[in-house]
Amino acid sequence: MLDIIKKAAIDAMHASNPMAVQIGTIVSISPLEVSLDQRLTLPEAFLIVPESLTRYEIDLSHVHKLSGSPDTEKALTNKIVIREGLAVGDAVILLRVQGGQKYVVIDKAVSE
Q1: pLDDT tens for each residue of 53-107
Q2: Chain mean position to CA 111
Q3: Strands, DSSP E only, in the chain?
Q4: What is the pLDDT of residue 16?
Q5: Which has the closest alpha carbon to 49: 34, 59, 68?
Q6: What was the pLDDT predicted at 76?
Q7: How does strand 47-48 pair with strand 103-109?
């Protein structure tokens, strides 16, 4: 009897598609698409991307007033990229959420 209950519990767990870690490849940025293998590409609607994997840039442009003069001088006129974000070809680590409807992009996968 106990074995039957254990088997039923295991079967129920497998049927619910528990979490799984997978590796994918970014195939498009806008809209975001990740290829898991040759037969499955995940569209943006299926992906949860943390802020740490998005592009982040700051604009530090400002103006200096020159000492003793009414003139001003622009400084740091370009934006500075702090984090590049995801790019086509990046390998990413995905965590499939239980049920398999959503995938959390955990991080980029790198190899040496």
Answers
A1: 999 999 888 787 777 777 777 777 788 899 999 999 999 999 988 777 899 999 9
A2: 18
A3: 20-29, 32-37, 40-43, 47-48, 56-59, 62-65, 72-75, 79-83, 91-96, 103-109
A4: 62
A5: 34
A6: 75
A7: parallel
Listed in sequence order, the residues at least 6 apart from 15 whose beta carbon sits closer than 8 Å to its beta carbon are none
The domain segmentation of the chain, as residue ranges, is 17-109
Record the tokens describing residue 62, joined without a space.
């400002």
Chain segment 22-45, per-residue pLDDT in tens:
999 999 999 999 999 888 999 999
Q: What are phi and psi of 5, to 5 degrees?
A: -65, -45
Structure tokens that stand for 100 in this block: 């398999």
The residue written with tokens 């970014």 in the block is 26
Residue pair 108/26 in contact (Cβ under 8 Å)? The answer is no
pLDDT at 11: 66
- Residue 45's φ and ψ, nearest 5 degrees, are -65, -20
In one letter, which amino acid is 82?
I
Nearest to 103 by CA among 39, 63, 45, 30: 45
